[in-house]
Automatic annotation (TrEMBL):
Protein name: Exopolysaccharide biosynthesis protein
InterPro entries cross-referenced by the UniProt entry: NAGPA
Keyword Aminoacyl-tRNA synthetase carried by entry: no
Keywords associated with the record: Membrane, Transmembrane, Transmembrane helix
Domain Phosphodiester glycosidase: 180-360
Source species, domain of life: Bacteria
Organism whose genome encodes this protein: Paenibacillus glucanolyticus
Transmembrane parts of this sequence: 12-33
Length: 361
């Protein structure tokens, strides 16, 4: 036998009860008229017809009143529903306006920094990331700028080594992008050749740990990576606790720091002249945490082509970048986007290196 579920009166909608109450009374009255109470012959003899007429008149009057009440109730419900719809629409408009106003400062700031880059020649946009690619050619050098907005911190990561996984293994940026299913990638930290391989230079953080242990900054080396919250972090670190405090998720090392907190840093003399000009890869961030990557081209590493670090430092400052770090350059400089190599590597082909920064749709 199927059991009927008991619904408590408190579960009924009050508005619904108000709406149907008059109709219940109306139906009850109609039932009374059409089916009067059963009376025995003995009882019926004592009910005069005039009394029945009077009762019928009273019932009809009550029915008329019930009808008026029902119409008034329906009208009241319609007005309430209309008012509710109007209120809901007004609240929605207010919320949309508030959201639009809240986003305006960000939109204005983005337009300001984008106007200094020009018109993008290529764009990638998804729920996780937005990438805009620009050409840069101030006259003395040329290359590309890639502005990246990480809508999701996991849309950027770092690769280490190759699919073999052995220490000192390397791969090109294109191979790293393809292997991990990324939409874009650049070369990352420096390296040192030895022990049968090409090993990342100094402090390298990957998959939640220090690859070769923490190494205090020396010879102007600086760490650069991303925090778990999706913010670019970097600089010189002499104590592991100072770097741990920034909650890194990955990072690599090279030299030098170009901008910090909006100010130009002193470029070591060695890096001003050896080489003076070169293909370069630089990564920086705006105050809204968008990233800007510059990759400049040159035909060799002899110091006669490409950009100087001072030129890139000045360029980044004018573009409104807050912090900026030089990554490995020369033949290592590489930029891959949408399955192709964007820049012209000075080696004539991409150089295999240990670390790459990757970006995902």
């Amino acid at each position: 036998m199927t059991r009927l579920r008991y619904i408590r009166p408190k579960q009924l909608n009050r508005t619904f009860m108000l709406a149907i109450a008059p109709f219940i009374g109306l139906l009850l009255c109609m039932w009374l008229i059409t089916k009067p109470p059963h009376l025995s012959h003995e009882t019926a003899e004592y009910i005069p017809s005039s009394s029945i007429s009077e009762q019928s008149a009273v019932i009809m009057q009550e029915l008329d009143q019930a009808s008026v009440t029902a119409e008034q109730t329906i009208s009241s419900i319609e007005k309430t529903a209309k008012l509710y719809q109007q209120t809901t629409a007004s609240v929605g408009t207010i919320l949309r306006t508030a959201e639009s106003q809240a986003a305006r400062p960000e939109q204005i700031y983005n337009r300001r920094i984008t106007s200094k880059l020009g018109v993008p020649i290529e764009t990638v946009n998804s729920d996780r990331i937005r990438i805009e690619l620009y050409k840069i050619n101030p006259g003395t050098y040329h290359g590309y700028a890639m502005k990246v907005k990480l809508k999701d911190p996991s849309a950027m990561s770092m690769s280490l080594g190759s699919e073999s996984g052995r220490p000192g293994s390397v791969e090109t940026t294109m191979r790293a992008v393809s292997r991990h299913g990324a939409v874009a990638g650049i070369n990352a930290g420096g390296y040192a050749d030895g022990n049968g391989g090409r090993h990342p230079l100094s402090t390298t953080f990957y998959k939640g740990k220090y690859v070769s242990g923490f190494q205090p900054s020396f010879k102007d080396l600086s760490f650069v990576g991303m925090s778990k919250s999706g913010k670019l972090i970097g600089g010189k670190f002499y104590n592991q606790s100072d770097l741990d405090r920034l909650d890194p998720v990955f990072g690599a090392t090279f030299v030098p720091v170009l901008l910090q907190n909006g100010y130009k840093t002193t470029i070591p003399e060695k890096w001003r002249t050896a080489p003076r000009r070169a293909p370069r890869t630089v990564i920086g961030n705006y105050k809204d945490d968008q990233l800007l990557i510059l990759v400049t081209e040159g035909y060799d590493e002899k110091g006669k082509s490409g950009a100087t670090l001072q030129e890139l430092q000045n360029k980044l400052k004018k573009l409104g970048v807050i912090d900026a770090y030089n990554l490995d350059g020369g033949g290592s400089a590489s930029l891959v986007l949408n399955g192709r190599v964007v820049n012209k590597p000075s080696d004539g082909s991409l150089r295999p290196v240990p670390t790459h920064f990757l970006f995902f749709e």
